[in-house]
Amino acid sequence: MTNGLSETQFNWRPAPAQWSIEECLAHLTMVGQWEIQAIENAIERGQAQGRTGRAPFEYPAIERLIVRESGTPVRHEFTAPRRFQPLHGQPVTGILPTFLHVQSQFVRQLERADGLDLKRVKVATPISRLLKMSLGMMFARAGAHGQRHMAQARRVWDRLPR
User: Fold this and answer.
1) Residue 53 in domain
2) Nearest to 145 by CA among 81, 93, 96
3) Are 47 and 116 in contact (CB under 8 A)?
4) 3-state class (DSSP) for residue 123
5) pTM
6) What is the spatial distance between Cα 74 and Cα 100, in angstroms, rounded to a whole number?
7) Is residue 48 part of a domain?
8) The total number of structural domains that make up the chain
9) Helix (H) or strand (E) holding 162
10) Digits of tens for pLDDT over the chain (162 positions)?
11) Structural domain range at position 119
């Protein structure tokens, strides 16, 4: 999605209150870094406690709702918490490598979670430190959130001045 984009296009906003492609990727990077740390901690705890299990796992309705609301199609607009609001105007070389690294870390954590009980191992969420989700649904939420903002970035791409 960033191949061939100029810095101006990468940072172009369709409207003043809408995010650029850069901001979509920067936001996913910021949230993803937080999630990876929380997931790593949960996996370590789960392994130390011997919380193993096998699929299929049945997840609570509230967790399924959170995943559904995090993804596409967008049913409700949410304002990103201040700590996850990206700076505008960052270069592609400052955002893309870190974004790709974070995505690779999700794959690494999925591999590390193999054999754990993905329902019983709980993970703090970026939504609220008081809200914990099962590890399996946290991975699903992260994926849904990524789809949401990649679709948003795609809409910006489609409207880019050429």
Assistant:
1) yes
2) 81
3) yes
4) strand
5) 0.95
6) 24
7) yes
8) 1
9) none
10) 788 899 999 999 999 999 999 999 999 999 999 999 999 999 999 999 999 999 999 999 999 999 999 999 999 998 999 999 999 999 999 999 999 999 999 999 999 999 999 999 999 999 887 899 999 999 999 999 999 999 999 999 999 987
11) 7-75+91-159
